[in-house]
């Protein structure tokens, strides 16, 4: 797994929120305050955003579409947005998945649909593999469950964490998203790093990177996922395409859509995303 890809490439275009920050509420997840929105009525759909994102930044169009006739629950993943930002690696990994289960318990929701984007897809993969009875469907957007962790992944996680704690946090991500043959200048890297650091708790994100290994589920656990699964990404998102094609070898029933000419970050702005997500979940209603 390339952690730089898991990072959602961070520069997702701005999307108008589904509502103002005053529309959020909080619950206590085993000592960590988690901010979330709960809008609409109907079958519940849980939305999990990507790294450095917010519930509304990555899911704005989907929230606005689904809340017309679904109950939409979108959280700020711990370490992000208005949620608490622990600085202990042990507070991340599987705990990000347990936040979802605890929220469903708190809201007295026995079963829901779940969709995750990038890092959120890894979290969604963890919870549907470890608590399958709580979910009716799973949608993986530009990402997939994490099922391998190599020595290279450990080195990459520590390198990214150390960079976040250094003078130029996010440098690797900024360089990684630059167009081929057009490396950003030092001044651009510095300015973008400062801007991103001002919007994020870099020490919390460093801890998250160090804790990501605890999101791993086995191939056998993935193969046993018995609920309907949908994957969608863009053809220009090499990591997302590889991750979802690999997932299809473990889950042949995966319904996979690849949109031509769309990048990792661009997928969340495409009208195909809310349309296809709606069609998928509506074709797999939750049994009474």
What does this molecule look like?
The protein is α/β, with parallel strands linked by helices and 288 residues long. The protein has one domain (3-149, 216-282): 3-Layer(aba) Sandwich (Rossmann fold). The protein contains 11 helices and 8 strands. It has helices spanning 3-6, 55-66, 94-106, 119-130, 151-164, 171-176, 186-199, 202-211, 219-223, 238-250, 272-282, and strands at residues 25-29, 32-39, 44-48, 71-75, 112-117, 135-141, 229-234, 255-259. An 8-stranded mixed β-sheet has the order 1-2-4-3-5-6-7-8, sandwiched between helices. The chain is globular, with a radius of gyration of 18 Å. Mean pLDDT is 91; it is low at 1-20.
In short, what is this structure?
The protein is 40% helix and 16% strand. The chain has helices at 3-6, 55-66, 94-106, 119-130, 151-164, 171-176, 186-199, 202-211, 219-223, 238-250, 272-282, and strands spanning 25-29, 32-39, 44-48, 71-75, 112-117, 135-141, 229-234, 255-259. Mean pLDDT is 91; it is low at 1-20.
Number of strands: 8
What percent of residues adopt helix (DSSP H or I)? Answer: 25-40%
Specify the biggest β-sheet: 8 strands, mixed
The CATH architecture comes to 3-Layer(aba) Sandwich
**Strand-pairing-aware structural class:** alpha/beta
Radius of gyration: 18 Å
H and E order? HEEEHEHEHEHHHHHEHEH
CATH class descriptor = Alpha Beta
Kindly report the average pLDDT value. Answer: 91
Beta content comes to 15-25%
Strand order of the largest sheet: 1-2-4-3-5-6-7-8
How far do the termini sit from each other? 38 Å
Low-confidence stretches: 1-20
- Tell me the number of structural domains: 1
């Amino acid at each position: 797994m390339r952690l730089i890809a898991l990072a959602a490439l961070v520069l997702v275009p701005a999307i108008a929120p589904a509502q103002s920050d005053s529309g959020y509420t909080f619950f206590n997840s085993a000592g960590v305050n988690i901010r979330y929105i709960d809008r609409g009525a109907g079958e519940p759909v849980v939305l999990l955003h990507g790294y450095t994102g917010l519930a509304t930044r990555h899911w704005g169009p989907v929230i606005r579409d689904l809340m017309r006739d679904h109950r939409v629950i979108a959280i700020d993943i711990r370490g992000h947005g208005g949620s608490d930002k622990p600085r202990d690696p042990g507070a991340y990994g599987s705990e990000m998945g347990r936040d979802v289960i605890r929220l469903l318990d708190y809201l007295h929701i026995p079963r829901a649909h779940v969709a995750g984007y990038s890092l959120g897809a890894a979290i969604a993969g963890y919870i549907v593999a470890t608590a399958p009875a709580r979910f009716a469907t799973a949608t993986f957007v530009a990402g997939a469950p994490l099922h391998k962790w190599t020595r290279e992944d450990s080195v990459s996680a520590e390198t990214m964490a150390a960079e976040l704690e250094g003078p130029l946090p996010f440098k690797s991500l900024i360089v990684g998203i630059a167009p081929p043959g057009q490396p950003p200048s030092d001044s651009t890297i510095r300015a973008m790093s400062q801007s991103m650091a001002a919007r994020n708790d870099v020490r919390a994100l460093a801890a998250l990177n160090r804790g990501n290994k605890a999101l791993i589920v086995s191939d056998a656990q993935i193969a046993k996922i018995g609920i309907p699964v949908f994957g969608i990404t863009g053809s220009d998102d090499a990591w997302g395409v590889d991750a979802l094609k690999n997932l299809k070898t473990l889950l042949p029933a995966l319904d996979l859509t690849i949109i031509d000419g769309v990048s990792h970050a661009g997928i969340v702005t495409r009208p195909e995303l809310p349309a296809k997500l709606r069609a998928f979940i509506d074709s797999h209603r939750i049994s009474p």
